Amino acid sequence: MIGTFFNHELKAFWRSKNTGKSIGVKVVMGILLLLLFSYVLIFGLFLDKILGKVLPDSDLTVTFCGIILIYFLIDLLLRLQLQELPTLKVQPYLHLPVRRNSIVGYLALTALLSFFNLWPIVLFTPFILKVILPAAGAISAIAFIISIIGLSVFNNYLAMYIKRKANLNGWVFLIAAAVLILIMLGDFMWHIYSVRNISYLFFGNLIVKPYLVLLPILLGVAMYWLNFLYLKENLYLEELGSQKASAYKSSTEIPVLSRFGIVGDLAANEIKLILRNKRSRSTLIIGLFFMFYGLIFYTQAAYGETIKIFVGMFMTGIFIINYGQFMYSWQSSHFDGILVSKINFTDFLKAKYLLFTIASTIAFILTTPYVYFGWRIIMIHFIMYLWNLGINITIVLFFANRNYKRIDLSKGAAMNWEGVGATQLLLSLPLIALPYLVYLPFKYAGYPNLGFAAIAVVAIIFILTRNFWIKKLEEDFYSKRFKIAEGFRNK
Amino acid sequence: MIEIKKLKKVYNGVTVVNVPQLEIKQGESIGLVGNNGAGKTTLFRMILDLIRPESGEVLSKGNKVAGAEDWKSYTASYLDEGFLIDYLTPEEYLYFIGGLHEQTNAQVDEHLATLTDFFNGEILKKGKYIRDLSKGNQCKVGVGACLLQKPQLLMLDEPFANIDPSTQFRLKNILKDQNKNHGVTTIVSSHDLNHITDVCERILLMEKGVIIKDIATSSSTLADLEEYFGVGQTIPANTPIIDEEENH
């Protein structure tokens, strides 16, 4: 029976809309995945060198053993946000003469099919083979690898369990997240204890006493059983589902926006769209994670100012790029309604500009703490913020007129390829290239400051001529709207 | 009100709608019937400028519908759930629609009070997003939003399909009231021949994209339509059912 389930599962994967329909998209996605995979692998392969560089004074093995537990704590937090529950897929089987144990076993097993379970293995195994194996022997190395797998499985099912509980009661999620953050703060802020020491206590001992491997195995198996039993007890659609049990949904208004008339109403609707649908919400959360993007570049003196243009643009415009690339697919489920209702398309576009302006402004404010790395960084951020408002919004909306793919808002955004097409791939090109086309000539002529000034001037010109671009976009939209509406009707 | 000239739509070489000439006058109540795939929804969508016809045009009040905005201010329509913004609560959605027609929230509330019976206490203040409502209740929201716009032209695609018998009855009364007392031109499609002959004064029968009958409703219309749709079916008249078990 489980075999049939897996067969169906494979078909579901290859035939799903998330996988992307055209072969071209599949190929590009495959390459991107491979690239991501190889990045992690390379990071894993050089983990010993990296740890040696970052903490040159301490012993390599000690450092390594210390970070494992921290990794899994962060991993759990990410899983809670991004990992999908394998859920309603069982609906077609529930009323058939299939034993409950097979259904539950299938549900519990497919939960393992997540990229989150692959990363720790790819990341840590090379180090174990390179350092632990020669130093402590094969048995210890195997014990290490099995421990890592055991902890991944434990994390996997713990996250599932918390998410399932949270479906019934939203507080569970908040409490779980708060506990995790408190554990982190307890170490790094208040120094009550050290997660690293605890981690080393276990993994350090694991080297000498390989039988300790039983502990992570036990943890993994126990968590699996807990999930199994819980699922078996709660094999009802609304409890499996990713929809929250019906809490009272109240109507809200965003008073600030109502001052903008219809445009404000439309923007307010879109804000509700973002907050009330899963895919858009996770896009927003991923965007918030990217606020830390600067830490990678600004902490290293090796990166020059040229890269900061990209980083600044990316951080202040992450929402425009990440959310805007799927425009107007977000509204695909009610696009017909928009077309027949009394909405002027100029207002529709102005609402997008308003929304993006708000989002970008918030992102810019959030990045101001980077002033720690110097005022010049804030200046670059501000210039790129203007660039986002002036040029990137217009580019994104230009490509939105060429996007005909429907998306389902109830699925998460991580690893979700539904709605991805050539548009999204083409879009990145002008976004990345254009600011450099303005900046680099000045830089190589020896006037980098003039380059920044030029970017700012171009951006301001575009902001001032916004109404002209809205007109152009509107004309463009009118020639494409049938195709867009038809594409959105294709479920 | 609506004039259709040489309208044609082709999908993959198959003509799905072909209407050479059709005029719908102000204040008429049109019923559109036809089997699945007859082209009813496609015709609706072309009238609403949602799909591009291969040839021909639709005029609303003498102006081309395609690319224009004017008709939107007096036309209200509900074809399917795709017309609703499903992540809003019904109240938010109705206020939004009201706002598009320059109505304040208080005015919307006032208008909604007249729909209390139709909504039957299942729509407002239930604390649900539209996507969490049943299909029938979504239909009520859609129809309610249409009425809120005080339209001159009202278009509904199979409104009776998912709603309960009481609501069907109420909807029929609403449609009659809109048509008779407010002069609203109504175009309604349905598979329920009883309802459609009851509500509409003029019936258009579509088959494979073509309007094959255009008749004013009379006492014999229902029988005619039943004969058309009942092709080749003979219902045995009063055959007594013999139960083998009890008849020995």
TrEMBL record, chain A:
Protein's UniProt keywords contain Transmembrane helix: yes
UniProt keywords, alphabetically: Membrane, Transmembrane, Transmembrane helix
Sequence intervals crossing the membrane: 23-47, 59-82, 103-129, 135-159, 171-193, 213-231, 282-303, 309-330, 351-372, 378-400, 420-439, 445-464
Keyword Membrane: yes
Protein name: Uncharacterized protein
Organism of origin: Mucilaginibacter segetis
Taxonomic path: Bacteria, Pseudomonadati, Bacteroidota, Sphingobacteriia, Sphingobacteriales
